[in-house]
Design goal:
Strand content: 5-15%
Shape: globular
GO cellular component, one term: cytosol
Number of helices: 17
Oligomer: single chain
EC number: 1.1.1.17
Family: Belongs to the mannitol dehydrogenase family.
Pfam families: Mannitol_dh, Mannitol_dh_C
Subunit structure: Monomer.
Length: 406
């Protein structure tokens, strides 16, 4: 008697239910969704299916994809350890948010111990978080929980930890507004991308999963795709949101519809970040194909059915202004490849002007500008020396935007 391959997914929120679980289920996996929300898990076990609504303003009626063959387990119980030791388990994925990896690592470690003691075979673990190297961080936390040499050896032989890049917008979704059949129903944009480091996968097929996942792309150069996503989707999203915030526009689609904002975003992605990416990764990214990728990203921003609020996208501005992150990162890459930085500087300046009293990072940023002075703080934050072309441009754009929108 044959059994369905099993996958455990940590995090039964909108990304888990709307992005990862559907791909696994459609590929023949029985999906075990695990979460701390007892009511949510109970509903999953009662209904065992739900709908994924594809949000698209280009169609009169949104497509609804049905997800079957799912069950739920509360992640704080020993049930998840038993699931980890299941003989048919092939894959473990997460979408819990980077800070929560600390909390699930001990559970995964106990599950690995249970698998070794039960003599189970190979599994692969992929952290589908919106961060570069999330799986590597999870692996480090899991290994720190394994003190037995036999467990460490088992991990080396039978557990693959593969980093990935994930991309799909799953905005807040009210099932009642969409006449959904279940409270489990979620809404997502049509576009998605799941690119996994195939080199890190373990199994009978080198560089691949034993049970392939339709919709998952494997690569042997994941860092290039990580940068493409961060410096295109995330950069454009942030610039659109911060400029939209300054103009008191509520959503990303309303913001990108503004001609002035669209011009800045297009310039930042096509002329600056995109040009730098294609120079750095010339063997992977063709400029024409990358321009088409950018245009697809811009079309996603314009999708009014997604209704992504600028305040949500703008949250945690200091994280987004990190030196390797979505705004400063591509600007630094431009400098490395002798590409003038103009539009990205406008985006950085707009982020520095984000004011939200309920956002700790916004409050911290505002205080630092007042105490240290704009020029000194921009240099400290971005790493661009005072007097450099990019530094001067950021300061000038900050003052121009402040004067225009104060």
């Amino acid at each position: 008697m044959s059994h369905s391959p099993r996958a455990i997914h940590f995090g039964a929120g909108s990304i888990g239910r709307g992005f990862i679980a559907p791909l696994l289920s459609n590929s023949g996996y029985h999906v075990v969704l695990t979460d701390v929300d007892k009511d949510l898990i109970q509903t999953i076990n009662e209904e065992k299916s739900y709908g994924v609504h594809i949000l698209d303003t280009n169609t009169d009626t949104n497509e609804v994809q049905q997800v079957e063959n799912v069950t739920g387990v509360i992640s704080t119980t020993n049930d998840i350890i038993r699931e980890m030791a299941h003989p048919d388990l092939k894959l473990v994925t997460t979408a819990v948010g980077l800070p929560i990896l600390d909390k699930i690592a001990p559970t995964i470690a106990k599950g690995i111990q249970a698998r070794r003691k039960a003599g189970r075979g190979t599994i692969n673990i992929i952290a589908c978080e919106n961060a570069i190297g999330a799986t590597a961080q999870l692996e480090e936390k899991v290994r720190a929980q394994l003190h037995d040499a036999a467990d460490a050896e088992y991990v080396d032989q039978h557990v693959g930890f593969a980093n990935c890049s994930v991309d799909r917008i799953a905005p807040p979704f009210d099932p009642e507004e969409h006449d959904a059949d279940s409270s489990l129903d979620v809404g997502v944009e049509e576009f998605f991308e799941w690119i996994v480091d195939g080199v890190a996968l373990k199994g009978s097929k080198p560089g691949a999963l034993d049970v392939p996942v339709e919709g998952m792309s494997l690569t042997d150069d994941l860092p290039a795709y990580n940068e493409r996503k961060l410096f295109t989707l995330n950069a454009g999203h942030a610039i659109t949101a911060y400029l939209g915030y300054l103009k008191h526009l509520p959503t990303v689609d309303a913001s990108i519809a503004d001609p002035d904002i669209a011009a800045v975003v297009r310039g930042a992605l096509h002329e600056e970040a995109g040009a730098a990416l294609c120079r750095k990764h010339s063997s992977i990214f063709d400029s024409k194909k990358h321009d088409a990728y950018i245009d697809k990203i811009l079309a996603r921003f314009a999708n009014a059915a997604v209704r992504d609020e600028v305040e949500r996208v703008g949250r945690q501005p200091l994280r987004k202004l990190g030196r390797g992150d979505r705004l400063v990162g591509p600007a630094r890459m431009c400098v490395e490849h002798d590409i003038p930085v103009h539009h990205l500087a406008t985006g950085i300046a707009a982020a520095l002007l984000y004011r939200n009293d309920e956002d700790e990072q916004s409050v911290e940023m505002c205080k630092a500008i007042e105490e240290k002075g704009l020029g000194a703080y921009v240099g400290e934050l971005t790493g661009f020396e005072e007097g450099s072309d990019v530094h001067k441009r950021i300061v000038e754009e900050y003052e121009r935007l402040q004067k225009t929108y104060s």
